[in-house]
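Slide 14.
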Amino acid sequence: PNTKHWIDLRNKHGHNAGRLLVQWNKRGEGSFQPTQPQVSGGQPFRPGTELDVTVVRGVDLAPMDKGTTDGYVEVGFGKKALGKTKTVKDNLNPEWNDVVRVKVPPQGADNLTL
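Slide 15: predicted structure.
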């Protein structure tokens, strides 16, 4: 079954920065249980594996400017973003329902990052 998971967000100081509702699927396979805040299925991702990451929504995102935020989510491996959701302006509880497809780099990867 395709299960959605809540991911707790932290800012660079370790403070609560809201939550994301997401779902991960390896192309051609069912969803797998993530860990937080970086996500893997318990084993490294094989080079060339394609993942569909559905970013459903955010809740109580930390305000950035004038008490609100223009929210988006970058998806990738390590510090390299490989895709991103659309931007939802002026909303601390954005709904994206975006699927971001990413491909595991040639060297493989242990963690998917948001």
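Speaker note: Confidence is low (pLDDT under 50) at residues 30-41.
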